Amino acid sequence: MAVVWTATALITALAPDLVSGSGSHHVPLPALTAWIWATAASGFLSLPRSSHLSTDAVTSIALVWGAALFLSVSAPELVVDDGATWIPVTACVAPAFAAVATGYVVLASVVRGPRVTPGLHR
């Protein structure tokens, strides 16, 4: 869960703002929406039996949130109205996809259950 919240804090601090109109009004839209998706991912990670996630599942979640961070910070913005409005679409959408991917990874890990290596009995 630390990876999710670290990535969210960095997205909040580093992602570009929505710039609107000729007065260049800045709205930190990614900072306002990333926390919602991080909360959803934390909810998935707080499900019963999700505390026993495999190393593969934890690595997948870390990679997904790392990719969301990278895309949120480095992806170009959508520019409209002859440069008067800049919309950071990727910075708003990447955390949502990361939260959904976290849900799928946790669900797959919980449904599959713990791995048992053939020949090893505990």
Describe this structure in words.
With 122 residues, the chain is mainly alpha-helical. 61% of the residues lie in helices and 10% in strands. It has 4 helices and 4 strands. The chain has a two-stranded antiparallel sheet. It is elongated and about 70 Å long. The model has no long low-confidence stretch (mean pLDDT 87).
Quick structural summary:
The chain has 122 residues and is mostly helical. It has helices at 2-14, 29-45, 55-74, 89-112, and strands at 18-20, 25-27, 78-80, 85-87. 61% of the residues lie in helices and 10% in strands.
The end-to-end span amounts to 29 Å
- Roughly how much helix do the residues carry, as a percent range? 55-70%
Averaged pLDDT: 87
Strand order of the largest sheet: 1-2
